């Protein structure tokens, strides 16, 4: 049990990229640009999906939630990262650090299963197109999204609970720019074995279960597409999946490297780079991946720009 006054006594200092003093300003400008694009891209995607009736389909319903999760994820992490690049005081309170960890976990786990839900949606669309609107009802879509959020909160509460069973002494230097699990337990005064095992087993379970849904869905999609008589039909079917497959590859590749390969933690620089990738870069990439390859999204953007220009004229 943690002493009740521990949160008042303990201070965390996020070292971030402080070992590269000459890079502080360039990194600030890079991350500020990425964060701006992330916010505009994800909130823009949500607005576009709501505005265009053609986008009121299950696929875009899930995509709007993915955009919301990416926006939240980036907002939990990036502002503190930007602050620490321009100020000398890199401290974060015990409560602030644990809160950042909790909300970041909620976002990661939700995104993990949201991508799996989107794979199932593509499976139904390609393999059972005539039953698509019946199978992917509004009720089922809401249920799938609700389950993703609920499970992510349960996981995050579990991780946070076991973190709170650890004791921390005085000032702790966290060798990362974010309150990430491995960096927090590394500065604990007590044995973090149980907390480390819990997150390793849970993260592995989440990865395997979500990847099984994704792989199974895409095996059926591939078999169905290859049976299509026309090359045009095959190309159209594959093109609806390319954006999703790209997002899956980038996201899951990084998560597997960081959490499910124990040796990857041997280099803190590698952990920081991987953390930057999935906390800062991926939330920016997702709206770009989905918008650049999507005619309906691009058409809605064009209409918005035209209407703005006409309004100004």
Description:
The protein is 76% helix and 4% strand. With 313 residues, the chain is mainly alpha-helical. The protein has one domain (6-312): Up-down Bundle (Rhopdopsin 7-helix transmembrane proteins), CATH 1.20.1070.10. A three-stranded mixed sheet has the order 2-1-3. α2 runs parallel beside α10, α4 runs antiparallel to α6 and α8 packs antiparallel against α9 (231-259). The radius of gyration is 21 Å and the shape is globular.
- Count all strands and give the number: 3
Tell me roughly what share of residues is in helical segments: over 70%
Low-confidence stretches: none
Give Rg in angstroms: 21 Å
Overall pLDDT score? 85
Strand content: under 5%
What structural category arises from helix and sheet content? mainly alpha
CATH homologous superfamily?
Answer: Rhodopsin 7-helix transmembrane proteins
Q: Total domains, how many? A: 1
Q: How many helices?
A: 11
For the terminal residues, how far apart are their CA atoms?
A: 66 Å
| CATH architectural category | Up-down Bundle
CATH class: Mainly Alpha
CATH fold type: Rhopdopsin 7-helix transmembrane proteins
Element pattern in H and E: HEHHEHHHEHHHHH
Overview in brief:
The chain is mainly alpha-helical.
Topology:
Blueprint: H1 6-9, E1 11-14, H2 24-51, H3 58-86, E2 91-93, H4 94-127, H5 132-135, H6 138-164, E3 171-174, H7 181-186, H8 193-226, H9 231-259, H10 268-292, H11 295-312
Parallel strand pairs: 1-3
Antiparallel strand pairs: 1-2
């Amino acid at each position: 049990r943690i002493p009740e006054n521990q949160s008042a006594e303990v201070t965390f200092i996020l070292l971030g990229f402080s070992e590269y003093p000459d890079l502080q300003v360039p990194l600030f400008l890079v991350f500020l640009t990425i964060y701006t694009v992330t916010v505009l891209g994800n909130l823009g995607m949500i607005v576009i999906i709501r505005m265009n009736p053609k986008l009121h389909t299950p696929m875009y319903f899930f995509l709007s939630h993915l955009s919301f999760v990416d926006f939240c994820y980036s907002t939990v992490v990036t502002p503190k990262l930007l602050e620490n690049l321009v100020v000398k005081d890199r401290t974060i309170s015990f409560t602030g650090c644990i809160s950042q960890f909790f909300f970041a976990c909620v976002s990661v786990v939700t995104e993990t299963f949201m991508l799996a839900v989107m794979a199932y949606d593509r499976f139904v669309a390609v393999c059972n197109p005539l039953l698509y609107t019946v199978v992917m009802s509004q009720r089922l879509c809401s249920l799938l999204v609700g389950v993703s959020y609920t499970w992510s909160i349960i996981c995050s509460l579990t991780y946070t609970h076991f973190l709170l069973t650890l004791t921390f002494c005085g000032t702790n230097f966290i060798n990362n720019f974010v309150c990430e699990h491995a960096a927090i337990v590394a500065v604990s005064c007590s044995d973090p074995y149980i907390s480390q095992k819990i997150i390793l087993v849970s993260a592995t379970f989440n990865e395997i279960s979500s990847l099984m849904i994704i792989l199974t869905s895409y095996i059926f999609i591939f078999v169905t597409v290859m049976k299509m008589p026309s090359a045009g039909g095959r190309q159209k079917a594959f093109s609806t999946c390319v954006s999703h497959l790209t997002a899956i590859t980038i996201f899951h590749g990084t998560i597997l490297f960081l959490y499910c390969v124990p040796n990857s933690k041997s280099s803190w620089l590698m952990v920081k780079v991987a953390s930057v990738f999935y906390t800062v870069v991926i939330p920016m990439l997702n709206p770009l991946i989905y918008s650049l390859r999507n005619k309906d999204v691009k058409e809605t953007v064009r209409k918005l720009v035209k209407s703005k220009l006409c309004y100004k004229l």
